[in-house]
Design brief:
This protein is mainly α. Helices cover 64% and strands 0% of the residues. It is built from 13 helices and no strands. α1 crosses α3.
């Protein structure tokens, strides 16, 4: 099997993850790239303009329900990856559910709705990545979900304008003093001055929520196999730095997305060495998962 396409897709579309993958070792990095390739495939399908997207996504979901190959190379390669790494197809199906949700205009009313969406499109990826990394601690799943959610919240905070231009609005209306009509993607894509301050405050709030999930995920990294901790902490810190860049630019979402410079990535990579030091991992903060009850990998008291 030609493994180069998976690596190329990760390098092109997942720059933060690609950087971190250099520290995983050849085999784990390749499997991580293959997982990313599948996630990117369904994401591109969901975001593209091809006809019959919902039908195609539902067909993929049905295939995952059966757990049998279907002749679609991307899906078949993922099923093979899942079999080899004991990846839960329940999590994969919930990922597809998230992509299906994006086929109707995104209009979130509150943060709980948004967190459930973030679990679908990113928390599930954290669960699957735990298997890719050969993690033996079952309770690591909760922390992996937190990392996925934190990263997705960061994506949403970064891409407000870009998402609006695609007809989507992920900012929960409860975080603003604006009406639904004022929060329409059309209004957001215009980025009128009267909207800027309110949306900026909402973005700041989302990044504060993301920080809580990042803090939890950082603790859980010590449940991962030793050789994986450095890479995952590096990915966490680089992604969290996107939030810092947004704050540094004073939440000016109308100026488009921010990037983390390579020199800063290098600094963050060096500071991630602390992940190699042993640490006792306390129980997961179940309060973080109260809005996620009933979803894959979620355990609440």
């Amino acid at each position: 099997m030609n493994d180069e396409p998976a690596k190329a897709i990760l390098a092109k579309h997942g720059k933060s993850f690609y950087w971190a993958s250099f520290f995983l070792g050849k085999k784990l990095a390749l499997n991580a790239a293959k997982l990313y390739q599948f996630c990117r495939f369904v994401d591109d399908l969901a975001d593209g303009d091809a006809r019959g997207k919902s039908r195609k996504l539902n067909t993929i979901r049905e295939t995952l329900e059966l757990g049998k190959k279907c002749g679609n190379s991307e899906v078949d390669q993922f099923i093979e990856l899942a079999e080899d790494n004991k990846i839960s197809l329940v999590a994969a199906r919930e990922l597809i559910d998230g992509m299906l949700a994006d086929q109707t205009p995104a209009r979130f009313r509150n943060t709980n709705e948004l967190l459930r969406y973030c679990h679908a499109v990113a928390g599930t990826v954290g669960l699957m990545m735990c298997q890719i990394l050969n993690c033996k601690h079952a309770r690591a799943d909760s922390f992996a979900i937190d990392l996925g959610i934190a990263m997705q919240l960061t994506n949403i905070a970064r891409d407000v304008l870009e998402d609006a231009e695609m007809g989507r609005r992920y900012i929960p209306s409860e975080l603003t003093n604006l009406s639904e009509s004022e929060l329409s993607p059309e209004r957001l894509s215009d980025a009128s001055p009267e909207l800027r301050g309110s949306i900026s405050k909402a973005i700041e709030h989302l990044l504060d929520i993301a920080d809580n999930y990042y803090a939890s995920a950082k603790i859980g990294i010590h449940l991962l196999p030793f050789k994986c901790r450095f890479a995952i902490l590096t990915a966490l810190q680089i992604y969290k730095a996107i939030g810092f860049a947004i704050k540094w630019r004073n939440f000016a979402w109308w100026k488009g997305r921010v990037v983390v410079p390579i020199t800063y990535k290098l600094i963050l990579s060096i500071t991630s060495i602390r992940a190699l030091f042993p640490r006792n991992v306390p129980p997961h903060c179940s309060k973080l998962h109260i809005p996620l009850r009933g979803l894959a990998g979620v355990i609440t008291n």
